[in-house]
Amino acid sequence: MIPVVDLAEYNLSVEEKTTDTATLKDLAGQICQAFQTVGFVYLKNHGIPQELVLRAFSTSKAFFDQPVEKKKKYSIKQGEYSGWIGYEEEKVNHDRPVCDAREGFALSIWNDMSFPENVPQEIELASKEMFQSCSQLALRILELLSIGLNKDPDYLRQYHKKMGHKGNVTMYRSNYYPPLKELKPDQARCGEHSDYGTVTFLFQDNASGLEAKGPDGEYVPVPPMEGTIVMNLGDMMQRWSADKLKATKHRVMASPDSVSRLRQSISFFVVPDDDALISCLDGSNRYPDITCVDYIKKNFNANLKDFSEK
C-alpha cells in the first residue's frame, strides 16, 4: 500500500524556517521510509491550489485536441527538452514491441528563454504557474530528503538552485492518453520504467491506470486520490543515496473497459543543475561520479524514436 504524507505543517502556505525541527524530522522520516520500501508516496495538503491543477489540465487538453498538423510545428527535436511528442513516438520500455499509446508536451521553462512561439497564452500562463509552484514545493521536499539522509537541510537544495533558469533541465510535462477502441498487442499506455531525476511529482485526473512495481515484483494500482500529488524517487537520487533510497519502476496500463476513456496527467521531473556532480552521499564508490547533464542526456534521448524515420 502506498503511504500518504500530510504536508499541512510544511506546505507552500507555511512560511519557510517556521516549522519546528521535530515536525521536519517526522516528515523526512515518513518520506524516506517510503522511498526505502515502495518508492512512492501520496502528498496531501501540499499547498498547490486545485484550481490551478484543473486549469492546467483544461488548457493542455485544448492543445492536444488540435489537429496533428497544427501540433507538428511544436515537435520536439533530438537533443532538446521542450516540445510536442506525438502519438506513438516514444517508447520508455524498449522491451515492448510497439511505442506507447500516448502523446505529450514537455517544457523546460527557463525564465530567460521565451515560451514556444504561438502557444496559446492560457497554456503558457497555467504551465508557468504550475512550474513555479512545483519548483517551490520541490525545494521543500529536497530539504526533507536531506534531513532524512542525515545531511544539512540545504544540502540537496544547493544542487537545484537553477530550476527555471539556464543550467537546469527540470521538466514540466503534460501527458495525454487518447481514448481508443483497443491497444495493439503488448502495447502499454506508458511502458515500464523508472524516472531519471531526483524526484517526480505526478498530478492525475480521475482515470485509473498508473501501476507501481511492488517489493514482490508484482505491479499494484496507484489510483487517483483527489487533491494529492503522487511522488516517486528518480534513478539519479537512488544513485546519489548509494541505493539507500529506491527508484521504483512504474507504468500506465489500460483494461478493456478503461482503454476507451481519456486519461490525462501532469508530470514534474525535478533535476539537479547541469554541473552538479552526482557522487555517493555515503562516501562509497558504489557508483562512479557523473555530472547531471551527462546522465540526463544519456537517459532522456534514449526514449525517443529516431526522428529521421518520420
TrEMBL record:
Keyword Oxidoreductase: yes
Pfam families: 2OG-FeII_Oxy, DIOX_N
Domain Fe2OG dioxygenase stretches: 168-272
GO molecular function: metal ion binding; oxidoreductase activity
Keywords: Iron, Metal-binding, Oxidoreductase
InterPro entries (alphabetical): DIOX_N, IPNS-like_FE2OG_OXY, IPNS-like_sf, Iron_ascorbate_oxido_reductase, Oxoglu/Fe-dep_dioxygenase_dom
Signal peptide: none
UniProt entry tagged with the keyword Chloroplast: no
Family: Belongs to the iron/ascorbate-dependent oxidoreductase family.
Full protein name: UPF0676 protein C1494.01-like
